[in-house]
Specification:
The structure is a homodimer of 81-residue chains.
Chain A lengths: L1 E9 L6 H12 L5 E14 L5 H13 L7 E8 L1
Antiparallel strand pairs in A: 1-2, 1-3
Chain lengths: 81, 81
């Protein structure tokens, strides 16, 4: 079994209003010195069998096209265990 | 500077309809053997200074009360660099 973790974040140059809201809320609740907050999505995908070869390529393609929007988002993908 | 990463996921016993939708879509797009998908949120928080002592306790409290809903969600928090 392979566990694939895909993190999806807005590109740095795209304004992140959710992150900005969290930044403000943290400050109001007493957390000082919060320089920046970015909010992203995380997908944890459990697969039967291993992830290698063409299957890994397909997973990477789908992470970039289905799980994230390549116009405004970046993603990272890693395989655990 | 400290970077805090908080991952927030629905508790295992809570149905995750977004994850279920992604699971179905991955299958339709040719990814076979997808056993489970869970979709969560990830917050990347850049702080001035270090995170230790009372400040770390406050951050952990806010991760559990502001960034996640303790009734239906679990969170993990880690400090990078």
């Amino acid at each position: 079994m392979a566990r694939v973790v895909v993190d999806v974040f807005l590109k740095p140059e795209i304004l992140d209003p959710q992150g900005r809201a969290v930044q403000g809320a943290l400050g109001r609740l007493g957390m000082e010195g919060v320089r920046d907050v970015r909010q992203g999505k995380q997908f944890v995908i459990d697969l039967e069998g291993d992830l290698a070869g063409d299957r890994a390529k397909l997973m990477e393609k789908l992470a970039g096209e289905l799980l994230s929007n390549p116009v405004i988002e970046d993603f990272t993908m890693r395989v655990e265990a």
